[in-house]
Amino acid sequence: MSAAVATLVFCAPGYPGGAGDAQPFVDQFAKATAAAAGWNPDSLAAVYDPTEEGGLAKLRDRESLLTFVPYAFHVQHGSELHLSPLAQADVAGVGTQERWTLVGKAGTAVTDASSLEGYTILSTAGYAPEFVRHAALAALDLSTNVKIESTGQILSALRRVASGEPVVVLLDQTQAAALPSLPFAAQLKSLVQSPPVPVALIEVVDSRMPPSRAKAVQAALLKLNSVKDGADALSALRLKGFTLPQLPANAPKP
Amino acid sequence: MKRCLAVAILASSMVACKAPPLRTGTVPSSLSVHELAAAIEADARRSDMETDSTVRERLAADAASYAQACISRSPQSAACLYYRAIALGLDAKAHPLHASETLKSMLAALDGAEAADATYSQAGPARVKALVLNRAPGWPLGPGDAEAGLAAARRAVALAPSYPPNLLALAEAQAKNGDSNGARATYARAGELSRGLPPGADRDGWLREAEQGLAK
Questions:
Q1: Where are the domains of chain A?
Q2: Which residues of B touch A154 (CB under 8 A)?
Protein backbone atom coordinates (compact mmCIF):
# COMPACT_ATOMS: atom_id res chain seq x y z
CA MET A 1 0.00 0.00 0.00
CA SER A 2 0.97 3.63 -0.36
CA ALA A 3 2.87 5.32 2.47
CA ALA A 4 1.06 8.58 1.76
CA VAL A 5 -0.61 10.03 4.84
CA ALA A 6 -4.37 10.40 4.89
CA THR A 7 -5.99 12.55 7.53
CA LEU A 8 -9.07 11.73 9.57
CA VAL A 9 -10.70 14.89 10.93
CA PHE A 10 -12.67 14.54 14.17
CA CYS A 11 -15.12 17.38 14.55
CA ALA A 12 -17.58 17.59 17.46
CA PRO A 13 -19.06 21.09 17.75
CA GLY A 14 -20.75 21.80 21.05
CA TYR A 15 -19.01 19.10 23.00
CA PRO A 16 -16.34 19.77 25.61
CA GLY A 17 -12.63 19.52 25.22
CA GLY A 18 -9.85 21.23 23.41
CA ALA A 19 -7.83 19.93 20.52
CA GLY A 20 -4.80 19.26 22.69
CA ASP A 21 -6.76 17.22 25.20
CA ALA A 22 -8.26 14.95 22.57
CA GLN A 23 -5.23 14.57 20.31
CA PRO A 24 -3.60 11.58 22.04
CA PHE A 25 -6.85 9.64 21.81
CA VAL A 26 -7.53 10.36 18.15
CA ASP A 27 -3.88 9.53 17.39
CA GLN A 28 -4.36 6.17 19.10
CA PHE A 29 -7.55 5.58 17.12
CA ALA A 30 -5.89 6.41 13.79
CA LYS A 31 -3.00 4.04 14.44
CA ALA A 32 -5.31 1.20 15.45
CA THR A 33 -7.53 1.72 12.42
CA ALA A 34 -4.57 1.81 10.02
CA ALA A 35 -3.16 -1.33 11.58
CA ALA A 36 -6.53 -3.09 11.31
CA ALA A 37 -6.61 -2.15 7.63
CA GLY A 38 -3.19 -3.75 7.18
CA TRP A 39 -1.51 -0.43 6.55
CA ASN A 40 1.52 1.19 8.02
CA PRO A 41 0.28 2.63 11.35
CA ASP A 42 1.61 6.04 10.33
CA SER A 43 -0.33 6.10 7.07
CA LEU A 44 -3.44 7.48 8.77
CA ALA A 45 -3.18 10.69 10.78
CA ALA A 46 -5.95 12.23 12.89
CA VAL A 47 -6.76 15.73 14.05
CA TYR A 48 -9.50 16.96 16.36
CA ASP A 49 -11.32 20.24 16.15
CA PRO A 50 -14.06 21.15 18.62
CA THR A 51 -15.50 23.96 16.51
CA GLU A 52 -17.71 23.93 13.45
CA GLU A 53 -15.62 26.59 11.67
CA GLY A 54 -12.34 24.88 12.49
CA GLY A 55 -13.65 21.51 11.41
CA LEU A 56 -14.96 22.90 8.14
CA ALA A 57 -11.63 24.57 7.41
CA LYS A 58 -9.78 21.33 8.02
CA LEU A 59 -12.21 19.38 5.85
CA ARG A 60 -11.56 21.72 2.93
CA ASP A 61 -7.91 20.66 3.02
CA ARG A 62 -7.31 18.16 0.22
CA GLU A 63 -5.41 15.89 2.63
CA SER A 64 -8.53 15.40 4.73
CA LEU A 65 -9.84 12.16 3.32
CA LEU A 66 -12.01 10.98 6.19
CA THR A 67 -14.06 12.59 8.91
CA PHE A 68 -15.72 11.54 12.15
CA VAL A 69 -18.71 13.76 12.83
CA PRO A 70 -21.98 13.79 14.78
CA TYR A 71 -25.03 13.07 12.63
CA ALA A 72 -26.13 16.69 13.06
CA PHE A 73 -22.95 17.81 11.29
CA HIS A 74 -23.66 15.32 8.50
CA VAL A 75 -27.15 16.73 7.99
CA GLN A 76 -25.92 20.32 8.01
CA HIS A 77 -22.82 19.92 5.85
CA GLY A 78 -23.01 16.49 4.23
CA SER A 79 -24.18 17.68 0.82
CA GLU A 80 -21.87 20.68 0.67
CA LEU A 81 -18.81 18.61 1.62
CA HIS A 82 -19.91 15.49 -0.28
CA LEU A 83 -19.67 13.27 2.78
CA SER A 84 -20.20 9.55 2.09
CA PRO A 85 -20.83 7.44 5.22
CA LEU A 86 -18.50 4.49 5.70
CA ALA A 87 -19.45 3.37 9.20
CA GLN A 88 -21.79 4.28 12.04
CA ALA A 89 -20.39 4.66 15.54
CA ASP A 90 -21.66 2.50 18.38
CA VAL A 91 -21.25 4.85 21.35
CA ALA A 92 -20.92 3.39 24.83
CA GLY A 93 -24.05 4.02 26.84
CA VAL A 94 -25.96 5.29 23.82
CA GLY A 95 -25.75 2.83 20.92
CA THR A 96 -25.66 3.35 17.17
CA GLN A 97 -28.75 5.56 17.21
CA GLU A 98 -30.24 8.08 19.59
CA ARG A 99 -33.40 10.08 20.04
CA TRP A 100 -33.31 13.83 20.63
CA THR A 101 -35.79 15.38 23.07
CA LEU A 102 -37.24 18.88 23.10
CA VAL A 103 -37.70 20.13 26.64
CA GLY A 104 -39.83 23.06 27.78
CA LYS A 105 -41.18 24.42 31.03
CA ALA A 106 -43.77 22.32 32.77
CA GLY A 107 -47.14 23.87 33.33
CA THR A 108 -46.85 26.64 30.75
CA ALA A 109 -48.41 27.28 27.39
CA VAL A 110 -45.55 25.51 25.61
CA THR A 111 -47.25 22.27 24.79
CA ASP A 112 -46.76 21.76 21.04
CA ALA A 113 -45.21 23.19 17.89
CA SER A 114 -47.83 25.86 17.38
CA SER A 115 -47.06 27.39 20.74
CA LEU A 116 -43.32 27.58 20.04
CA GLU A 117 -43.59 30.66 17.86
CA GLY A 118 -41.37 33.37 19.26
CA TYR A 119 -39.31 30.85 21.21
CA THR A 120 -35.61 30.09 20.81
CA ILE A 121 -34.44 26.50 20.58
CA LEU A 122 -31.08 26.05 22.32
CA SER A 123 -28.99 22.94 21.71
CA THR A 124 -25.48 21.61 21.34
CA ALA A 125 -26.72 20.82 17.83
CA GLY A 126 -27.87 24.39 17.29
CA TYR A 127 -25.00 24.92 14.86
CA ALA A 128 -26.93 22.59 12.55
CA PRO A 129 -30.38 24.16 12.02
CA GLU A 130 -31.08 21.80 9.13
CA PHE A 131 -30.70 18.91 11.55
CA VAL A 132 -32.90 20.57 14.16
CA ARG A 133 -35.70 21.40 11.70
CA HIS A 134 -35.63 18.42 9.39
CA ALA A 135 -34.22 15.53 11.44
CA ALA A 136 -34.64 15.99 15.20
CA LEU A 137 -37.89 17.99 15.05
CA ALA A 138 -39.17 17.09 11.58
CA ALA A 139 -42.52 16.09 13.04
CA LEU A 140 -43.16 19.61 14.30
CA ASP A 141 -42.92 21.55 11.04
CA LEU A 142 -41.31 24.44 12.91
CA SER A 143 -42.31 27.91 11.90
CA THR A 144 -39.67 30.28 10.63
CA ASN A 145 -40.31 32.45 13.68
CA VAL A 146 -38.56 29.91 15.86
CA LYS A 147 -34.90 30.81 16.39
CA ILE A 148 -32.29 28.09 16.69
CA GLU A 149 -29.07 28.80 18.59
CA SER A 150 -26.02 26.76 19.48
CA THR A 151 -24.93 26.46 23.08
CA GLY A 152 -22.42 24.41 24.98
CA GLN A 153 -24.00 25.53 28.26
CA ILE A 154 -26.91 23.12 28.45
CA LEU A 155 -27.31 23.44 32.21
CA SER A 156 -27.64 27.22 31.92
CA ALA A 157 -30.11 26.76 29.07
CA LEU A 158 -32.26 24.44 31.18
CA ARG A 159 -32.18 26.94 34.04
CA ARG A 160 -33.51 29.53 31.60
CA VAL A 161 -36.33 27.18 30.66
CA ALA A 162 -37.17 26.56 34.30
CA SER A 163 -37.20 30.28 35.04
CA GLY A 164 -39.82 30.86 32.37
CA GLU A 165 -37.75 32.52 29.64
CA PRO A 166 -39.09 31.93 26.10
CA VAL A 167 -36.58 29.19 25.33
CA VAL A 168 -36.79 25.43 24.87
CA VAL A 169 -33.83 23.05 24.79
CA LEU A 170 -33.15 20.21 22.39
CA LEU A 171 -31.26 17.49 24.24
CA ASP A 172 -29.32 14.51 22.96
CA GLN A 173 -30.03 11.13 24.48
CA THR A 174 -27.34 11.36 27.15
CA GLN A 175 -28.56 14.76 28.26
CA ALA A 176 -32.22 13.72 28.25
CA ALA A 177 -31.46 10.62 30.30
CA ALA A 178 -29.79 12.79 32.94
CA LEU A 179 -32.70 15.23 33.29
CA PRO A 180 -34.15 13.57 36.42
CA SER A 181 -30.86 14.26 38.21
CA LEU A 182 -31.45 18.01 38.09
CA PRO A 183 -32.82 19.65 41.23
CA PHE A 184 -35.33 21.56 39.09
CA ALA A 185 -36.35 18.57 36.96
CA ALA A 186 -39.97 18.92 38.10
CA GLN A 187 -40.14 22.29 36.36
CA LEU A 188 -39.23 20.76 32.99
CA LYS A 189 -41.31 18.78 30.54
CA SER A 190 -40.44 16.70 27.47
CA LEU A 191 -42.40 18.12 24.55
CA VAL A 192 -41.44 15.87 21.67
CA GLN A 193 -38.90 13.19 20.83
CA SER A 194 -37.19 12.56 17.50
CA PRO A 195 -37.20 9.24 15.71
CA PRO A 196 -33.93 7.33 16.15
CA VAL A 197 -31.08 8.93 14.21
CA PRO A 198 -27.41 7.94 13.98
CA VAL A 199 -25.16 9.28 16.73
CA ALA A 200 -21.97 9.73 14.70
CA LEU A 201 -20.49 8.64 11.40
CA ILE A 202 -17.12 8.11 9.79
CA GLU A 203 -17.31 9.38 6.25
CA VAL A 204 -15.23 9.80 3.12
CA VAL A 205 -14.83 13.46 2.19
CA ASP A 206 -15.58 14.45 -1.37
CA SER A 207 -14.56 11.07 -2.85
CA ARG A 208 -10.95 11.88 -1.95
CA MET A 209 -10.20 8.32 -0.91
CA PRO A 210 -10.13 5.72 -3.69
CA PRO A 211 -12.97 3.18 -3.31
CA SER A 212 -10.60 0.26 -2.68
CA ARG A 213 -8.95 2.08 0.22
CA ALA A 214 -12.29 3.25 1.54
CA LYS A 215 -13.46 -0.38 1.57
CA ALA A 216 -10.34 -1.33 3.50
CA VAL A 217 -11.00 1.38 6.10
CA GLN A 218 -14.62 0.30 6.39
CA ALA A 219 -13.63 -3.32 6.96
CA ALA A 220 -11.05 -2.20 9.52
CA LEU A 221 -13.63 -0.13 11.42
CA LEU A 222 -16.17 -2.95 11.48
CA LYS A 223 -13.67 -5.32 13.10
CA LEU A 224 -11.80 -2.76 15.20
CA ASN A 225 -13.31 -3.91 18.50
CA SER A 226 -11.88 -7.38 18.03
CA VAL A 227 -8.32 -6.63 16.93
CA LYS A 228 -5.17 -5.90 18.91
CA ASP A 229 -5.18 -2.39 20.36
CA GLY A 230 -8.52 -1.69 18.68
CA ALA A 231 -10.72 -2.11 21.74
CA ASP A 232 -8.46 0.16 23.79
CA ALA A 233 -8.49 2.81 21.08
CA LEU A 234 -12.28 2.65 20.91
CA SER A 235 -12.72 2.70 24.66
CA ALA A 236 -10.58 5.82 24.94
CA LEU A 237 -13.09 7.53 22.67
CA ARG A 238 -16.03 6.02 24.56
CA LEU A 239 -16.90 3.87 21.57
CA LYS A 240 -17.84 0.21 21.44
CA GLY A 241 -17.29 -0.26 17.72
CA PHE A 242 -18.81 0.44 14.33
CA THR A 243 -21.62 -0.92 12.19
CA LEU A 244 -22.57 -0.35 8.57
CA PRO A 245 -24.33 3.00 8.16
CA GLN A 246 -28.11 3.00 8.41
CA LEU A 247 -29.24 6.51 7.64
CA PRO A 248 -32.80 7.78 7.85
CA ALA A 249 -34.59 8.05 4.51
CA ASN A 250 -34.45 11.84 4.57
CA ALA A 251 -30.71 12.04 5.23
CA PRO A 252 -28.78 14.25 2.81
CA LYS A 253 -27.05 12.52 -0.07
CA PRO A 254 -23.40 13.21 -0.99
CA MET B 1 -16.71 10.33 21.57
CA LYS B 2 -18.04 12.89 24.01
CA ARG B 3 -16.59 12.13 27.40
CA CYS B 4 -13.15 11.38 26.05
CA LEU B 5 -12.92 14.92 24.89
CA ALA B 6 -13.26 16.11 28.43
CA VAL B 7 -10.65 18.62 29.46
CA ALA B 8 -8.12 17.95 32.12
CA ILE B 9 -8.13 20.71 34.65
CA LEU B 10 -5.12 22.77 35.44
CA ALA B 11 -5.78 23.66 39.03
CA SER B 12 -2.84 25.91 39.70
CA SER B 13 -1.40 28.98 38.05
CA MET B 14 0.82 28.49 35.05
CA VAL B 15 4.23 29.54 36.23
CA ALA B 16 7.75 28.46 35.47
CA CYS B 17 9.93 27.22 38.28
CA LYS B 18 12.69 24.85 39.02
CA ALA B 19 11.08 21.79 40.55
CA PRO B 20 12.69 19.36 42.95
CA PRO B 21 13.23 15.74 41.88
CA LEU B 22 10.37 13.32 42.37
CA ARG B 23 10.14 11.82 45.82
CA THR B 24 10.51 8.09 46.24
CA GLY B 25 9.13 6.07 49.14
CA THR B 26 6.70 7.06 51.87
CA VAL B 27 5.93 10.55 53.09
CA PRO B 28 8.14 11.40 56.10
CA SER B 29 6.05 11.69 59.24
CA SER B 30 8.10 14.68 60.35
CA LEU B 31 6.67 16.95 57.64
CA SER B 32 4.38 19.71 58.88
CA VAL B 33 1.11 20.69 57.25
CA HIS B 34 2.89 23.71 55.75
CA GLU B 35 5.65 21.51 54.31
CA LEU B 36 3.14 19.01 52.91
CA ALA B 37 1.20 21.83 51.26
CA ALA B 38 4.42 23.19 49.78
CA ALA B 39 5.31 19.75 48.42
CA ILE B 40 1.94 19.48 46.64
CA GLU B 41 2.37 23.00 45.30
CA ALA B 42 5.76 21.99 43.88
CA ASP B 43 4.23 18.91 42.24
CA ALA B 44 1.50 21.06 40.73
CA ARG B 45 3.96 23.57 39.31
CA ARG B 46 6.10 20.84 37.86
CA SER B 47 3.06 19.10 36.37
CA ASP B 48 2.02 22.35 34.67
CA MET B 49 5.31 22.35 32.79
CA GLU B 50 5.50 18.61 32.13
CA THR B 51 4.70 17.17 28.71
CA ASP B 52 5.43 13.52 29.51
CA SER B 53 2.20 11.82 30.60
CA THR B 54 4.10 9.20 32.60
CA VAL B 55 5.81 11.87 34.67
CA ARG B 56 2.46 13.65 35.17
CA GLU B 57 1.01 10.39 36.51
CA ARG B 58 3.91 10.07 38.95
CA LEU B 59 3.53 13.66 40.07
CA ALA B 60 -0.20 13.11 40.62
CA ALA B 61 0.49 10.00 42.70
CA ASP B 62 3.16 11.87 44.64
CA ALA B 63 0.81 14.75 45.38
CA ALA B 64 -1.93 12.32 46.41
CA SER B 65 0.42 10.79 48.99
CA TYR B 66 1.24 14.20 50.44
CA ALA B 67 -2.44 15.16 50.45
CA GLN B 68 -3.38 11.97 52.27
CA ALA B 69 -0.69 12.61 54.87
CA CYS B 70 -1.88 16.20 55.27
CA ILE B 71 -5.52 15.19 55.73
CA SER B 72 -4.43 12.58 58.29
CA ARG B 73 -2.64 15.26 60.30
CA SER B 74 -5.24 18.02 60.03
CA PRO B 75 -8.47 16.83 58.43
CA GLN B 76 -10.39 20.09 58.81
CA SER B 77 -7.68 22.60 57.97
CA ALA B 78 -8.18 24.81 54.95
CA ALA B 79 -4.61 24.10 53.85
CA CYS B 80 -5.03 20.33 53.73
CA LEU B 81 -8.47 20.46 52.10
CA TYR B 82 -7.25 23.01 49.56
CA TYR B 83 -4.15 21.04 48.66
CA ARG B 84 -6.11 17.79 48.58
CA ALA B 85 -8.18 19.50 45.89
CA ILE B 86 -5.03 20.53 44.03
CA ALA B 87 -3.77 16.93 44.21
CA LEU B 88 -7.09 15.70 42.82
CA GLY B 89 -6.72 18.21 40.00
CA LEU B 90 -3.37 16.66 39.11
CA ASP B 91 -5.02 13.24 39.15
CA ALA B 92 -7.76 14.48 36.80
CA LYS B 93 -5.12 15.86 34.47
CA ALA B 94 -3.16 12.60 34.53
CA HIS B 95 -6.22 10.38 34.08
CA PRO B 96 -8.65 12.33 31.90
CA LEU B 97 -10.93 9.37 31.27
CA HIS B 98 -11.87 9.34 34.95
CA ALA B 99 -11.69 13.09 35.36
CA SER B 100 -15.39 13.69 35.81
CA GLU B 101 -15.67 11.85 39.12
CA THR B 102 -12.30 13.16 40.29
CA LEU B 103 -13.34 16.73 39.60
CA LYS B 104 -16.50 16.28 41.64
CA SER B 105 -14.33 15.18 44.57
CA MET B 106 -12.07 18.15 43.90
CA LEU B 107 -15.01 20.54 44.12
CA ALA B 108 -16.16 18.91 47.35
CA ALA B 109 -12.69 19.42 48.85
CA LEU B 110 -12.74 23.05 47.75
CA ASP B 111 -16.16 23.51 49.36
CA GLY B 112 -14.63 22.23 52.59
CA ALA B 113 -11.61 24.50 52.28
CA GLU B 114 -13.76 27.52 51.59
CA ALA B 115 -15.93 26.74 54.60
CA ALA B 116 -12.84 26.34 56.79
CA ASP B 117 -11.12 29.54 55.66
CA ALA B 118 -12.34 31.32 52.55
CA THR B 119 -9.35 33.67 52.62
CA TYR B 120 -6.75 30.90 52.51
CA SER B 121 -4.15 31.39 49.76
CA GLN B 122 -5.67 34.70 48.60
CA ALA B 123 -9.16 33.19 48.34
CA GLY B 124 -7.69 30.10 46.71
CA PRO B 125 -10.68 27.80 47.31
CA ALA B 126 -13.13 30.04 45.45
CA ARG B 127 -10.56 30.89 42.76
CA VAL B 128 -9.72 27.28 41.96
CA LYS B 129 -13.39 26.33 42.14
CA ALA B 130 -14.10 28.99 39.53
CA LEU B 131 -11.43 27.57 37.24
CA VAL B 132 -12.75 24.04 37.61
CA LEU B 133 -16.37 25.03 37.06
CA ASN B 134 -15.41 27.06 33.99
CA ARG B 135 -13.13 24.51 32.38
CA ALA B 136 -14.66 21.14 33.25
CA PRO B 137 -17.12 19.53 30.85
CA GLY B 138 -20.63 20.71 31.61
CA TRP B 139 -23.70 18.78 32.65
CA PRO B 140 -24.28 15.90 32.27
CA LEU B 141 -20.78 14.79 31.30
CA GLY B 142 -19.00 16.65 34.07
CA PRO B 143 -19.32 19.20 36.86
CA GLY B 144 -18.71 22.25 34.68
CA ASP B 145 -21.15 25.07 35.38
CA ALA B 146 -20.37 28.48 33.88
CA GLU B 147 -22.80 30.40 36.09
CA ALA B 148 -21.54 28.81 39.30
CA GLY B 149 -17.99 29.45 38.06
CA LEU B 150 -18.75 33.14 37.68
CA ALA B 151 -20.21 33.29 41.18
CA ALA B 152 -17.13 31.59 42.62
CA ALA B 153 -14.80 33.96 40.77
CA ARG B 154 -16.73 36.95 42.11
CA ARG B 155 -16.35 35.60 45.65
CA ALA B 156 -12.60 35.25 45.14
CA VAL B 157 -12.30 38.81 43.86
CA ALA B 158 -14.42 40.12 46.72
CA LEU B 159 -12.06 38.50 49.23
CA ALA B 160 -8.76 39.39 47.55
CA PRO B 161 -9.38 42.05 44.90
CA SER B 162 -5.73 42.92 44.34
CA TYR B 163 -4.52 39.39 43.63
CA PRO B 164 -4.19 39.10 39.84
CA PRO B 165 -5.07 35.36 39.58
CA ASN B 166 -8.49 36.13 41.09
CA LEU B 167 -9.13 38.71 38.40
CA LEU B 168 -7.86 36.34 35.72
CA ALA B 169 -10.30 33.71 36.95
CA LEU B 170 -13.10 36.28 36.93
CA ALA B 171 -12.25 37.43 33.41
CA GLU B 172 -12.27 33.84 32.20
CA ALA B 173 -15.66 33.28 33.82
CA GLN B 174 -17.08 36.47 32.35
CA ALA B 175 -15.94 35.42 28.88
CA LYS B 176 -17.43 31.97 29.37
CA ASN B 177 -20.75 33.57 30.28
CA GLY B 178 -20.74 35.77 27.20
CA ASP B 179 -19.73 39.03 28.91
CA SER B 180 -16.86 39.90 26.58
CA ASN B 181 -16.76 43.58 27.58
CA GLY B 182 -16.61 42.69 31.25
CA ALA B 183 -13.90 40.12 30.54
CA ARG B 184 -11.77 42.69 28.70
CA ALA B 185 -12.07 45.18 31.52
CA THR B 186 -11.13 42.54 34.07
CA TYR B 187 -8.17 41.28 32.03
CA ALA B 188 -7.00 44.90 31.77
CA ARG B 189 -7.28 45.32 35.55
CA ALA B 190 -5.37 42.07 36.10
CA GLY B 191 -2.64 43.36 33.80
CA GLU B 192 -2.42 46.68 35.66
CA LEU B 193 -2.14 44.94 39.01
CA SER B 194 0.49 42.54 37.68
CA ARG B 195 2.61 45.34 36.28
CA GLY B 196 2.64 46.94 39.71
CA LEU B 197 4.21 43.87 41.31
CA PRO B 198 7.94 43.14 41.67
CA PRO B 199 9.43 41.23 38.72
CA GLY B 200 9.24 37.47 38.97
CA ALA B 201 7.99 34.33 37.29
CA ASP B 202 4.53 34.57 38.85
CA ARG B 203 4.08 38.18 37.81
CA ASP B 204 5.28 37.43 34.28
CA GLY B 205 2.86 34.52 33.99
CA TRP B 206 -0.11 36.58 35.17
CA LEU B 207 0.81 39.45 32.88
CA ARG B 208 1.10 37.08 29.92
CA GLU B 209 -2.29 35.56 30.69
CA ALA B 210 -3.89 39.01 30.96
CA GLU B 211 -2.39 40.09 27.65
CA GLN B 212 -3.50 36.88 25.97
CA GLY B 213 -7.00 37.45 27.31
CA LEU B 214 -7.06 40.98 25.93
CA ALA B 215 -5.86 39.75 22.56
CA LYS B 216 -8.79 37.34 22.14
A1: 6-95+198-243, 100-193
A2: 138-140
pLDDT at B13 > cutoff 60: no
CB-CB neighbors (< 8 A) of A159 in chain B: 147
The DSSP call for residue B21 is P
Q: Write down the architecture of domain A100-193 according to CATH.
A: 3-Layer(aba) Sandwich (3.40)
Q: Could you report the per-residue pLDDT of A27-36, keeping only the tens digit for each?
A: 999 999 999 9
| N residues, chain B | 216
Cis peptide before A41 (omega within 30 of 0): no
Q: Does B104 touch chain A (CB under 8 A)?
A: no
Tell if the CB–CB gap between B138 and A154 is shorter than 8 Å. Answer: yes
Helix ranges (H only) for chain A are 19-36, 52-59, 71-81, 129-131, 154-162, 173-178, 211-223, 230-236
Residue A197 scores a pLDDT above 70: yes
Residue of B nearest to A15 (CA): B2
The CATH code for residues A6-95+198-243 is 3.40.190.10
Residue A239 burial (10 A CB sphere; 0-12, 13-18, 19+): buried
The pLDDT-based confidence of B187 (bands split at 50, 70, 90) is very high
Average pLDDT over residues A118-130: 95
- Is B146–A156 a contact, with Cβ atoms under 8 angstroms apart? yes
What confidence tens digit (pLDDT) does each residue in B74-94 have? 999 999 999 999 999 999 988
Enumerate the domain spans of chain B: 1-117, 145-216
A207 reaches B (C-beta below 8 A):
no
Out of A33-42, A232-241, B13-22, B136-145, pick the least confident: B13-22
Nearest to A16 among B97, B144, B147 (CB): B144
- Whether B5 sits inside 8 A of A181 (CB atoms) is no
With CA atoms as reference, the chain A residue closest to B147 would be A156
The pairing of strands A97-98 and A197-198 is antiparallel
- Tell me which of 3.30.450.70, 3.20.20.70, 1.10.3330.10, 1.25.40.10 is the CATH number of domain B145-216: 1.25.40.10
Indicate yes or no: CB of A16 within 8 angstroms of CB of B4. no
Under 8 Å CB-to-CB from B144, ≥6 apart: which residues? A16, B132, B133, B134, B135, B136, B137, B138
